[in-house]
Design a protein that fits this description.
5-stranded parallel sheet; alpha/beta
Length: 335
């Protein structure tokens, strides 16, 4: 007879864990409700942004102009008790405009470090693809190692640290595509899309007198956010689920239409976000549906489609869907 494998960790004292998960779920719900006052009709995208925040990852918000990319990032930052800075990327920007510079103090006769906008807990990198590759590279160390190095001196960045980057995928003039090394450092990629006509009417009414962002308040403290982020790590992931995540990553590297598949960092991103999704649902364990729901947003931007496949209009998203249809899901097993 076939049975569904048990995804829950057996014989584990879970009373404390349940309290931690309840805290994480409550924090996620409060942030989601607050941000949804500004971003109308995009409940799933807002929850994905909150999921990225709880997973301690960076988020790439990619869509056409005017759909609320920057507003989502600003609203998310305003609801949590973190330091915030915004970087408006331009073609003439230099790496030192991001990281900071060392200036000579005439009085002390010593060099002093003047921190750049990257030295904040939540950083909005607006129109990130308008900066040159040299300037974009200034983010690589910060995104992966949560530190920057200026003139041979390394400066740690405060915890938590998150970059919310926006870019317009339609306009190519005056832009520089993000290199694969930087794309791989983003935990998830979100697309907002157009609102429905009824949602757009709600937006018009909401902004008749003032922008809803002006009335948005902080809803969680820094301590609550950090506790929720720590609680995510306590979510149990069965060996079958881990194998499923690894199999999806390996399948992306062997797919006939793929030039470069997902990296091990992509598997780790899928692993961590699946934990966060389980916590936001109030579960202590990950199920296959968590992995399937997050495979596209965590893996698609890491996959480079081959030239022949691009001619056939095959995208990385369709490849991820193909992987989900072909890789066996942990399910019924004989005991």
């Amino acid at each position: 007879m076939n049975y569904l494998p048990d995804m829950r960790q057996p014989s584990r004292s879970s009373s404390v864990v349940q309290q931690h998960i309840a805290l994480a779920q409550n924090v996620a719900e409060r942030i989601s409700q607050s941000v949804s006052q500004v971003i109308i009709g995009k409940r799933n995208e807002v929850r994905l942004a909150v999921l990225g925040l709880l997973s301690r990852g960076h988020i790439l918000i990619e869509d056409i102009p005017g759909v609320g990319k920057t507003m989502l990032a600003k609203a998310l930052a305003k609801t949590v008790g973190c330091t915030f800075s915004r970087i408006q990327f331009t073609p003439d920007m230099l790496p030192s405009d991001i990281t900071g510079v060392s200036l000579f103090n005439q009085k002390t006769r010593e060099f002093e470090f003047r921190a750049g906008p990257i030295m904040a807990q939540i950083v909005l990198a607006d129109e990130i693809n308008r900066a040159t590759p040299k300037t974009q590279a200034a983010l690589l160390e910060a995104m992966e190692e949560k530190q920057i190095t200026v003139d041979g001196v390394t400066y740690p960045i405060g915890d938590p640290f998150m970059i919310l980057a926006t870019q317009n995928p339609i306009e190519y003039e005056g832009t520089f595509p993000l290199p694969e090394a930087q794309l791989d450092r983003f935990l998830i990629r979100i697309q907002l899309g157009y609102p429905t006509p009824s949602e757009e009417l709600t937006v018009l009414s909401a902004q008749q007198y003032e922008h809803p962002l002006a009335n948005l308040n902080q809803v969680v403290s820094l301590q609550e956010l950090q506790a929720a982020q720590m609680a995510i790590r306590e979510i149990y992931v069965a060996e079958e689920i881990k194998r499923y995540i690894v199999d999806l990553g390996n399948a992306s590297r062997q797919h006939a239409d793929v030039y470069l598949g997902s990296s091990p960092r992509g598997s780790l991103a899928l692993f961590r976000t699946a934990q966060a999704r389980a916590a936001m649902a109030g579960r202590e364990y990950v199920i296959p549906d968590d992995v399937k729901a997050l495979a596209e947003v965590t893996l698609a931007h890491r996959i480079i489609v081959g030239p022949a496949a691009r001619i056939k209009d095959i995208t990385s998203r369709t490849i991820v869907q193909d992987l989900l249809n072909s890789v066996p899901v942990p399910g019924a097993s004989a005991r």
